[in-house]
Amino acid sequence: MGGQRRGLRVLVIGGGIGGLCLAQGLRQHDVDVTVYERDESALGRRQGYRLRISPEGEQALRDCLPHRAQQLLVATANMRYEKGLAAYDERLNPQWAPTFEDARGDAPDKVDAVDRVTLRRILLAGLDDRVCFGKRFTHYEQRPGGQVAAWFDDGTHDVGDVLVAADGTNSRVRTQLGGEHALSDLGVRAILSRTPMAAAIQAGMPEVLRDRFTYVIGADGFHLGMMPMVFRTEPRKAAAELWPGLEFDDVQDYYMSVFSVHRSELGLADEEFFAMTGRQLCDLVLKRTSGWHPDLHGVFDYAEPEQTFPVALRATLPVLSWKAGNIVPLGDAVHAMPPSGGVGANTAVRDASALSRALVAVDQGKQSLAEAVAAYQEAMTGYATEAVVMSLKIAQWSMKLDFAP
Ligand SMILES: Cc1cc2nc3c(=O)[nH]c(=O)nc-3n(C[C@H](O)[C@H](O)[C@H](O)COP(=O)(O)OP(=O)(O)OC[C@H]3O[C@@H](n4cnc5c(N)ncnc54)[C@H](O)[C@@H]3O)c2cc1C
After folding, report:
1. Which of 58, 120, 161, 395 has the CA that lies 20 to 30 A from 345?
2. CATH number at residue 256
């Protein structure tokens, strides 16, 4: 095929981690892309906090982001490299402590964990004219000539050559497309929370727990994963130096905590659990951990209720290609996985990098859309399956699951 620019127009549904990363990759190659996000702004989503970034995820982010955004990513990344995981029982008796191999070693510009909201802001940098907030996708419609129209709940629509489903686990695009999709509820219910690091340390958190991924196995089926996020540079300060004018939130170092329990050991029906306020969830954690070692209490006592919310863990297995055509899947919409492997977002940005390369080749007239999308889906289903299986095996190692690989 020749080298004539085709003028491809890409519509992305969902401005989460994967959708925004794709838009960055396409924009670097002047491909016409618009992202439609249901949230009213970049602020205010209960998305979770710290994200571990794998070597593959870091590479994909670097592939898609312009240089200045990469500098911001490095400047705001986690400063204390993960020194493996230490597991304890609830009285802090050591259980096991595996170490992780990381090919990046202690490279000074390594990005091994980030704050999720800060990452989303970096992924939005320079995309002001490409991201439309407050646009809830309702349905699509195939048009003659191979184009596709996306409709939104305010009655408006847009037309493009490709529609990318980056709308997460409950993907509406996927629902309309139909076909087989094996999404299972793992039966695990989690409470996500955030505790300011200074408060936890002042309350007596011992040195040994401060710097690593701590996993605590409670006797009653209640488990805690606790991870530190220490900014290399506070995001607002980093932006003032590297990208003046870019808005960041006022965020301080913190611990992210994830309490997980199988629903049979929760003692609450789902309706009741998911209706709980942040304060009620914090109180539930305090009650269930009252007998735990006092050194852990700072994290529970100072957890921020407004940053505490419930989540159900789900997984897609097998990961299946979608019908080849102009509706293309990306991220959790096609491969949900439990957070135990720390690779869901990494896999979404890996998709973004691969799909961006594929769509650039189509735009440049080097490949047909059908060929490019089929090749992308074949590679994606392979590495995403590995990621889902690995995440399930880790979850299964410590928890009872309703669905196992
Ligand atoms: C507790 C927890 C910890 C995790 N930790 C890690 C980790 O350390 N490392 C890691 O790699 N992964 C982690 N993950 C997984 C990671 O969060 C997801 O895999 C990742 O966010 C998926 O990205 P995505 O772009 O596919 O979906 P999302 O980031 O969920 O984005 C989907 C977007 O689509 C929008 N949307 C949905 N429906 C519509 C609609 N109808 N119209 C318009 N917009 C819509 C949503 O508002 C959202 O912005 C964790 C998950 C959890 C729950």
Report:
1. 161
2. 3.50.50.60
